[in-house]
Design a protein that fits this description.
Blueprint (H helix, E strand, L loop, with lengths): L5 H15 L10 E8 L5 H9 L4 E6 L4 E7 L3 H10 L3 E6 L2 E3 L17 H9 L15 H5 L15 E6 L13 E6 L15 H10 L15 E6 L6 E3 H13 L4 E4 L8 H12 L3 E5 L17 E6 L15 E6 L3 E4 L5 E4 L2 H17 L5 H10 L1 E2 L6 H4 L3 E2 L1 H4 L2
Parallel strand pairs: 6-8, 6-10, 7-8, 10-11, 11-12, 12-13
Antiparallel strand pairs: 1-3, 1-4, 2-3, 5-9, 14-15, 16-17
Helix pairs in contact: 6-9, 7-8, 9-10
């Protein structure tokens, strides 16, 4: 009997693999994703084969946690999960939940954008409604002045450091971000990895606080010579799956980036996300994350010990009422009425621990530029530069407010 031709052999092999996989009906209805993590000694190929045996298709691989994400009809979910958990090769099966990651970290109603006029501002100051914050120049929003970013600039403005903004993307065309964004990754669509432009606005606002250009116009960031990567894990509505966020973390860690800003959060955790954060820290990535706006417990991923969790303060050095709190909080930073870049041009003031977090990410980048090379070294530098705010407990502020000038002493 003559052996099949190479082309026919390839077809037969493909058919054999397809036969072993589940057949998915065209009218299956709702579909779900499952994250299937295999034990460390199981190869990616073996894990993929096992996961595919109960799923319709493989959505992505998550190598840092040795996991495969599969798609399958919702009505098969429980049965498939039970089968996978029974395997000796598997140590984790989770539903890849999709959720909104911005509602928990950004105050829905922005601060009004109209100009009160100096007369009205003076009246508010007199009755205690506004606290003057010393600003070196009009380009500095009050939060940049409060962390004394300019105090570090004679020594470093962050040159040589890069930060991954894991968010909704970045508008690289904004004048204050021109030349600042040097690349990125879209985790939402494996077929369009370079489509990382911002379509929501949140990531651009965060980016301006970290690295807005120092050009005498608009706003300046904490570290104006830092370069940014836009890691898009959330869509135009702020939604994304746990695997999307994990893929963004993996991308940043695998590209040798030292600091990631995660101004996003959820009120529930994920074992897969926790493992990804741990793996990223071991790979040298410092993750700075928003504590959350619940006014109570710190959210996720900020509550994981490997991250730097940031609470929000107002311009009176009080903790913002919405700011989450607890022993997981590491630092406090300006998070009320923070002026920064608006997607498409112009500027907008927003509030939330989302807005506090990039102040600390920018400070972490300054520490990296000054020689901190590991997450522990970055954390130690920030700790040494922080001072507790009076009348606030550690559960509200962690080690306190960071002074950029102290980072470069």
């Amino acid at each position: 009997m003559r052996p099949p031709s190479p082309a026919l052999a390839a077809v037969l092999s493909l058919l054999a693999v397809s036969a072993r996989a589940q057949v998915c009906p065209l009218d299956a209805g709702d579909v779900i994703h499952k994250i299937v993590a295999c034990k460390p000694d199981v190869s990616t190929a073996e894990c993929r084969k096992l996961a595919q045996s109960v799923g319709c298709s493989v959505v992505r691989e998550l190598p840092s946690i040795n996991a495969i994400v599969i798609e399958l009809p919702a009505f098969r979910g429980d049965k498939a999960e039970a089968k996978l958990k029974a395997s000796t090769l598997v140590n984790l099966v989770e539903t890849d939940r999709k959720r909104n990651w911005l509602t928990a970290v950004t105050v829905p109603a922005p601060v009004p954008q109209f100009d009160l006029g100096e007369g009205a501002r003076d009246i508010l100051r007199r009755i205690g409604g506004l606290k003057p914050v010393a600003v070196a120049d009009p380009e500095q929003p009050w939060g940049i002045a409060r962390v004394n970013a300019a105090g570090a600039w004679p020594s470093t403005q962050g040159q040589g450091a890069v930060v991954a903004v894991i968010d909704t993307g970045i508008d690289k065309s904004h004048p204050d971000l021109a030349g600042v964004v040097i690349g990125g990754f879209n985790a939402l669509d494996p077929n369009k990895p370079d489509a990382w432009a911002d379509d929501q606005g949140h990531g651009s606002h965060v980016a301006g606080t970290i690295a807005g250009r120092r050009d005498g116009k608009g706003v300046v960031g904490v570290a104006p010579l830092v370069k940014l990567y836009a890691v898009k894990v959330l869509d135009a509505d702020g939604n994304g799956g746990f695997s999307d966020v994990i893929a963004g973390i993996e991308w940043a860690a695998s590209h040798g980036i030292k600091v990631a800003n995660m101004s996003l959060g959820a009120d529930e955790g994920s074992e897969a996300l926790k493992r990804a954060v741990t793996a990223a820290a071991k790979n040298g990535l410092t993750i700075v994350a928003a504590a959350g706006n619940s006014g109570s417990a710190v959210g996720f991923p900020a509550s994981y010990p490997e991250t730097i969790a940031v609470a929000a303060s107002d311009n009176k050095d009080a903790v913002a009422e919405f700011s989450s709190r607890g022993p997981e909080v590491d630092f406090i930073a300006p998070g009320v009425g923070v002026k920064s870049v608006q997607m498409g041009g112009g500027y907008v003031e927003l509030s939330g621990t989302s807005m506090a977090t990039p102040h600390v990410a920018g400070l972490a980048a300054l520490a990296v530029a000054r020689g901190a090379r590991t997450p522990s070294a970055v954390r130690a530098a920030l700790n040494a530069a922080a001072t507790p705010l009076p009348r606030l407990t550690s559960a509200l502020q962690g080690r306190g407010m960071i002074d950029a000038a102290k980072l470069v002493r």
